[in-house]
Amino acid sequence: MSVLRELDELLCGDEEDYARLDLFHEADELIGQLQPGEVPALLVLWQRRGAGWQQRFTQASSSIDGAVLRALLAGLLRLGDTVHGICALMTRLPATADSSPLSDALLDYAQRAWQAHPARQRQIQMSCWSCGLSGRLLKRLGLASWKEAGL
Hints:
Distance between the termini: 46 Å
Largest sheet: none
Helix content: 55-70%
Strand content: under 5%
Number of helices: 10
Structural class: mainly alpha
Order of helices and strands: HHHHHHHHHH
Radius of gyration: 16 Å
């Protein structure tokens, strides 16, 4: 069975069993085995599955490969994913942002999400902070500090 298929079955499983059997660790291990070539199929699953599946994936993605993470984030940006998915996965990026097209796209997304989802501003700020985009987002928003933003 392919890693992605096994992961999908695990994440689609019963919520009570998932928690009771601590399947989080198995999901994390499977996510760590994903390869960049599997990202298109992962994106299809992402669209087909519900928010619970997506949340399980993001929570169990601590060992996700960097290339897989970047490809997944780029794909989710193209799909216009929910704030939760992108922000949760941004926290898995290295703490120092680079000047790559992906970082620029994430910054654009964070700026749009900031304005469109005021209730999620703290989550957006924390996601940007964790991957080194916080200062750049502040500048984009025209703010001198996060305190000025009310955070």
